[in-house]
């Protein structure tokens, strides 16, 4: 009985957090987000996209993250549209480097992937687990590695 009550409260608060997230950003009701997820900034997500747990989406004041429709984002994915300049102390955040991150429609992002600022992934891309994406790739690319490289084409 105690477990059932605790589970009910957990689900109630998780669902409220997800509803708040969908009101705050451009996120259609068809998007599935498995709590917890960290989100900060200007974020737009297309229809029928879903996120597994522990994802992090962070933008700055002038950068955006745009994710297309029908995408699958696995657990522990980090997408950051900003970074600090080389050699800049972490305490000084006035000289941030901000660039949009755009992920096309029908993309699959594997678990534990890190996507850097300025990356554009075309439609129908697949990113292998544990990859670090530091540059852009065209439609139908299959990429993976550290840093991510083109492995093949998604035919």
Essential attributes:
five-stranded parallel sheet; alpha/beta; seven-stranded mixed sheet; 1 helix; UDP N-Acetylglucosamine Acyltransferase, domain 1; 155 residues; disordered N terminus
Describe this structure in words.
With 155 residues, the chain is of the alpha/beta class. It has one domain (2-153): UDP N-Acetylglucosamine Acyltransferase, domain 1 (3 Solenoid), CATH 2.160.10.10. It is built from 1 helix and 18 strands. The protein has one helix at residues 2-24, and strands at residues 32-33, 37-40, 42-45, 50-51, 55-58, 64-67, 72-73, 78-80, 82-84, 96-98, 101-103, 108-109, 114-115, 120-121, 126-127, 132-133, 141-144, 149-153. The strands form 4 sheets. Strands 1-4-7-12-15-17-18 form a 7-stranded mixed β-sheet, with no helix packed on it. A hairpin with a 4-residue loop joins β17 (141-144) and β18 (149-153). The longest helix is centred in the N-terminal third of the chain and has 23 residues, at 2-24. The N and C termini lie far apart (51 Å).
Brief characterization of the structure:
By secondary structure, the chain is α/β, with parallel strands linked by helices.
Strand order of the largest sheet: 1-4-7-12-15-17-18
Distance between the termini: 51 Å
Average pLDDT, to the nearest integer? 82
The CATH topology label is: UDP N-Acetylglucosamine Acyltransferase, domain 1
Computed CA radius of gyration, to the nearest angstrom? 17 Å
Q: How many structural domains in the coordinates?
A: 1
Low-confidence sequence ranges = 1-10
CATH level-1 class: Mainly Beta
Helix content: 10-25%
The number of helical segments is: 1
- Considering the protein shown, what is the CATH homologous superfamily? Hexapeptide repeat proteins
The CATH architecture assignment turns out to be 3 Solenoid
- What is the N-to-C succession of helices and strands? HEEEEEEEEEEEEEEEEEE
Number of DSSP strand runs: 18
Percent in strands: 25-35%
Shape type: globular
Largest sheet: 7 strands, mixed
Name the structural class.
Answer: alpha/beta
């Amino acid at each position: 009985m105690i477990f059932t009550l605790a589970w009910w409260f957990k689900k109630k608060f998780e669902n409220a957090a997800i509803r708040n997230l969908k009101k705050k950003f451009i996120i259609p009701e068809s998007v599935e987000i498995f709590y917890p997820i960290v989100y900060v900034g200007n974020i737009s997500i297309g229809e029928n996209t879903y996120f597994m747990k522990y994802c992090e989406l962070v933008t700055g004041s002038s950068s955006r993250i745009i994710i297309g429709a029908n995408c699958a984002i696995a657990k522990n994915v980090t997408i950051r549209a900003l970074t600090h300049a080389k050699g800049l102390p972490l305490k000084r955040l006035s000289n941030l480097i901000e660039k949009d991150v755009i992920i096309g429609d029908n993309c699959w992002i594997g678990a534990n992937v890190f996507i850097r600022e300025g990356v554009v992934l075309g439609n129908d891309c697949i990113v292998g687990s544990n990859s670090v994406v530091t540059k852009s790739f065209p439609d139908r690319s299959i990429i993976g590695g550290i840093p991510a490289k083109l492995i093949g084409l998604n035919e």
